[in-house]
């Protein structure tokens, strides 16, 4: 691992552009292959072997060479790990307010923190490993889905590479150091177990683990319930999915004899930092000095979550005749348009979902917008404050906020296409529940 942060992050940027060029080539030249066969030398290794090798190499090199991650998040993980190894209750310790999730990752973070004390590997390297492993799991699921759908080796390879080489996924796990690939993997596993094998109860339990990991996968629950026939099956599926995070939370409360309020308040209300993404960034940059700004902005942030819930549920209902992943893609795209706060790591959520839904072209546009957003954020401040060294604080702050616009505008256009398709020919009675 390099100790020179400037040199290491510069290399990381060059590496990212190289991987991004490979992704672009796969997207433009390989996607759409039908009966094309792989070259003989490639067929000597199974498709899944190539996919895992590529996905592992492009991630592990930056993991081991970069001496940094997103500074605030890595320090938050460090505080969580330190609290856990000292038998402290995480949510009221020095890490208070810095772990806005239910008690699942805390155990993994604690283990990795302890390993960093025993092994000659720094914590910033070890903390990125779970995200990389989850990425490999997603690649494996894409491969297995291709096999279940009867895809050729060439097409399975192409679809797998579109995630293995996706620069947004690589930035989140190998550069940023966030674990968002884990709930995505569990969510897709829940879908896969139900879609391919028809195991509803197993799917519900895995979805419960995804919700425990991060609360947003609960968006899949109503989508799944609408596709199950019979009230009993829906009740069992929903009950199992909710029971997993509830039992895990109760266990943590019992284990540490803790007050659940700080944990639940943070985990159930966390919605990102407003003012740095989309329309909230535009408001902050162009109207931040206006006398009315603070009141309007605070009111917007306070009420937008109810808009998200309402529009999200409407999206779920209108997409009830579409495939599960198509419906989830529409729901997530809609949320990404309307949200006032946005964690940069959240951009990985859509990547494998939209890929397996078959929306490859829009995924390509979304990827390049997302890369712009993540690079400006990570290289502007979180990994190394380039923007704040090159420009005045006011200019750097404006550029930092406006870096989200390419990603947000792509999402707006993508959502517009999907909603136009949804609303074409919709009648009032289609919006109503018919028993």
SSE blueprint and pairings:
Blueprint: H1 5-30, H2 40-43, H3 47-65, H4 71-85, H5 105-118, H6 123-126, H7 129-148, H8 153-164, H9 167-176, H10 181-197, H11 200-213, H12 220-225, H13 231-256, H14 260-269, H15 278-287, H16 293-318, H17 324-338, H18 350-357, H19 360-382, H20 386-390, H21 393-402, H22 405-423
Helix pairs in contact: 1-8, 1-9, 3-7, 3-8, 3-9, 4-5, 7-8, 7-9, 7-10, 9-19, 10-11, 11-13, 15-22, 16-17, 17-18, 17-22, 18-19, 19-22
Walk me through this protein's architecture:
It is a single chain. The chain has 22 helices and no strands. By secondary structure, it is mainly α. The chain has a domain at 271-435. The longest helix has 26 residues, at 5-30.
> Helix share of residues?
over 70%
> Can you write the helix and strand succession as a string?
HHHHHHHHHHHHHHHHHHHHHH
Total beta strand runs: 0
Largest sheet: none
In what range is the share of β-strand residues? under 5%
Rg from Cα: 22 Å
Globular, elongated, flat, extended or rod-shaped: what is the shape? globular
Q: What is the residue-averaged pLDDT?
A: 91
What is the structural class? mainly alpha
Count of helical stretches: 22
For the record, give the distance between the C-alpha atoms at the N and C termini, rounded to a whole number.
Answer: 61 Å
Low-confidence runs (pLDDT<50, min 5 residues)?
431-435
């Amino acid at each position: 691992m390099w100790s020179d942060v400037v040199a290491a992050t510069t290399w990381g940027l060059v590496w990212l552009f190289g991987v991004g060029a490979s992704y672009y080539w796969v997207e433009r030249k390989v996607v759409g292959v039908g009966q094309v066969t792989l070259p003989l030398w490639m067929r000597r290794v199974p498709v899944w072997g190539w996919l895992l090798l590529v996905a592992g190499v492009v991630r592990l090199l930056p993991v081991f060479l970069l001496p940094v991650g997103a500074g605030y998040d890595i320090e938050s993980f460090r505080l969580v790990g330190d609290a856990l190894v000292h038998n402290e209750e995480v949510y009221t310790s020095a890490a208070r307010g810095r772990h806005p999730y239910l008690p699942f990752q805390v155990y993994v973070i604690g283990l990795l923190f302890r390993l960093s004390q025993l092994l000659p590997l720094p914590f910033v390297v070890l903390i990125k490993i779970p995200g990389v492993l989850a990425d490999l799991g997603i690649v494996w699921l894409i491969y297995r889905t291709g096999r279940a759908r009867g895809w050729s080796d060439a097409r399975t390879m192409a679809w797998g590479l579109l995630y293995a080489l996706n620069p947004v996924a690589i930035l989140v796990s190998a550069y940023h150091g966030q674990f968002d690939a884990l709930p995505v993997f569990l969510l897709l596993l829940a879908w896969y177990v139900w879609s391919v094998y028809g195991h509803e109860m197993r799917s519900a339990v895995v979805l419960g683990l995804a919700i425990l990991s991060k609360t947003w996968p609960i968006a899949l629950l109503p989508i799944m319930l609408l596709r199950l026939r019979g009230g009993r099956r829906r009740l069992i599926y929903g009950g199992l999915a909710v029971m997993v995070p509830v039992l895990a939370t109760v266990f943590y409360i019992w284990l540490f004899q803790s007050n659940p309020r700080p944990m639940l308040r943070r985990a159930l209300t966390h919605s990102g930092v407003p003012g740095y993404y989309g329309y909230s960034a535009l408001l902050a940059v162009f109207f931040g000095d206006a006398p009315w700004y603070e009141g309007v902005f605070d009111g917007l942030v306070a009420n937008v979550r109810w808009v998200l819930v309402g529009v999200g549920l409407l999206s779920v209902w209108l997409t009830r005749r579409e495939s599960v992943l198509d419906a989830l893609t529409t729901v997530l795209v809609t949320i990404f348009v309307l949200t006032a706060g946005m964690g940069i790591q959240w951009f990985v959520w859509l990547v494998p979902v939209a890929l397996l839904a078959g929306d490859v072209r829009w995924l390509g546009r979304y990827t390049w917008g997302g890369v712009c957003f993540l690079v400006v954020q990570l290289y502007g401040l979180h990994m190394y404050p380039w923007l704040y060294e090159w420009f005045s604080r006011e200019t750097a702050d404006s550029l930092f906020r406006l870096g989200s616009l390419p990603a947000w505008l792509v999402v707006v256009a993508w959502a517009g296409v999907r909603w136009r398709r949804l609303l074409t020919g919709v009648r009032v009675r289609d919006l109503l529940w018919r028993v």
